[in-house]
Amino acid sequence: MGNQATEGSNLNIAKITLGVVGEVVKPFVPLIDAVTLVIEEIIKVYETVQYNKKICNSLMDRVDAAGTAIKTLKRRQTENEQNFRNKEYYKSFIRFIEIMKRIKNFIIDVSTLNKYQKFVHSSSVKDGFDSLTKDFDVVMTELHFTMAVANEEQRMIDQFALESDIADMTKFLEKIGGGIIDQNQKINILLHEVSLMKEKLDHPDSSDNNIKNIKADEIKSTDLMDPIVSKEKDRRGNNRQVIRKIYKNFEVACKPIDLQNNDPKETAKIQGQLAILGKLRESPNIIRFYGLSYTENSDVMVFEWADYGSLKELYCQYDIAWHRKVKIALDICRGLAFLHSCDILHHDIRCEHIMMVTGLIPKIAEFKYSRMARSPTTDMKGVTDITRWMAPEKLRDSTYSDSTKKHVHVPYTFKCEIFSFGMLLWELVFEKIPYEKWNILKIKEHVLAGNREKITWGKAPPDVQKLQKGLAKIIVSAWEDDPAIRASLQNIFINLDHLVDEYCTPDKETDVILLPDKTLDLDGSAVSISDESGLDLPDMDFNIDKIPQIIPLEEGIAAHWKKEHAKAWKCFLAHADLKNTTAKYWKGIYLWEGIEVEKDRKQACELFKEAADDEIAEAQLSYAFSLVNDPTVEFDRETFLKYITKAANNNNSTAQFSLGEVYLYGKLNQKKDEKLGKKYLRLAALNNQPKAKEVLQKLGINVYTDN
């Protein structure tokens, strides 16, 4: 027995010395690199998950298992030599990569609102999850990878995650409103439109000359009228620079901005950001921006007028009744959810940057490019102010990276903003600035030690005490030091909405909302923590059987565009046989057009539909058009519209243009809907669809500013 073990060991050493194992592994090296990269990408995506976190966690259990299996495979190459010689093992590995890519895309789609709409229009989240996990479990078995996740306990975890997240998402979408859900009870197309505009501004393409045309609306100075009756607060802000005017019978605030002294690139950036701000008007909880104008010898930004000033000014002047505070908090959360759904971060959320309009409706304001242009950006007081609401990861400003073995800068994320929102809630509840008497160093030391502001309550009726307990739970959940376990905005919204339903009953509407200052005993002491000095968490064969190598699908697609059709067809055929959805689509294209193969439009159509049902936008478009272009099949208008709508909602510009024309002109006997038609045409134009740009130009519609 000992001699056999010694002989086996010597054999392995001999193989390594002769380089035999290396030759066997060679075809797998790029595959291992590819799956390692995808796993890294998934981890990065997971860090920004906003919705359906339990579902994403269940998938991350599998990603972790895959990562561990790959590390083991790389470490034990000699022991796995027999597998490396197996052709079917090689094919399974390719399928493994594609499944990991599908997991990444599923997490992206299910965790962001502007992507989530595809689940509303097509297969359910559960169907997608079940399909992914089943395929993952099968391929892990084929690769002989250990699966700690393939057991009854994990299945119970998965079931709970699905039921819990789907229930929460359903409730959230029913309640959120605020411009996120349109009149048809579907996720507003505007979210995707704004996200596309923001992407163009953040990553400008030198070939897109229309970027410079993304500008805010211009308002004639003659359209800004003086109020008939003047008020004491007609001028506000530092040096009383914010002026009240009347625009189209609405009270507006004219706020100075310096556009003349900036370099052209910066001016274009400001214009673009303001144009996006104008688009956000569909949210009732974001300050309405009308456009740019000129008055009182100054370029100005024109916003809706806030009768009560900022939320900070309001709580400094009055005590706000408890039932109204929770409604204000819910509305701010609604506005923040709208921003995040458009991939926009505020960066400085606090009561001072919430404007209160008629009806005591809160509006998020003071975005980066809508602040006073003449305000100094390096004012240390401003830095200290921001610190009071800042997330601990941003206070640290850098974190140690295991991959680079260096400290790296921490970017501002949705998680940071949720922490700041928790601080805003504390500020609103207790009507005072956090850590008011502390300097920046003391605040950092306190927060990074895991401490937070005090939550203590004064005397209050039993119903208010229950409300306070609910608010405290929400605030603490937003204050978690670890961003990974910090509450999601969705969870905060649902909990705030529950408090509103339970405590903001109709009889409360007749109660006084604004009480004289210091009427309420908010915390039993009316002092901040800063007043208390920071008190207070087998036999081996040397014969190498060469396996025919399958090039990556991306390389096959590149070969197609280079007109290397034989190479591309071979690639698409191989990957389609491995049930790769995108490869099925490309195989369909070649069969439809008769490239490198005899035309077979019936089979092509079947492949288009398979890929279309797996959410490949190009396949959805091709399947829709195949219904029109195949004379052997009776045209099915309903199915055509179903699949072209799927393609449009999956961001295919040709589908967006075609669907826009269908609605705009009432083609295919579809009832006209000019508004929806123009929205799809604008999306197509934002995706650089030339015909859409041409149609909008003829209609006199500016893609960036018209609604």
List the helices and strands and how they pair.
Blueprint: H1 2-18, H2 20-25, H3 29-46, H4 53-75, H5 81-84, H6 87-111, H7 113-121, H8 125-142, H9 152-175, H10 189-202, E1 224-225, E2 235-236, E3 242-247, E4 250-256, H11 264-279, E5 289-295, E6 298-304, H12 311-317, E7 318-320, H13 322-341, E8 354-357, E9 361-364, H14 380-387, H15 392-396, E10 398-401, E11 406-409, H16 414-430, H17 440-448, H18 462-478, H19 489-503, E12 514-516, H20 553-561, H21 565-577, H22 581-593, H23 601-613, H24 617-629, H25 637-649, H26 653-665, H27 674-686, H28 690-698
Antiparallel strand pairs: 1-3, 2-3, 3-4, 4-6, 5-6, 7-12, 8-9, 10-11
Helix pairs in contact: 3-4, 3-6, 4-6, 4-8, 4-9, 6-7, 6-8, 9-19, 10-11, 10-27, 13-16, 13-19, 16-18, 18-19, 20-21, 21-22, 22-23, 23-24, 24-25, 25-26, 26-27, 27-28
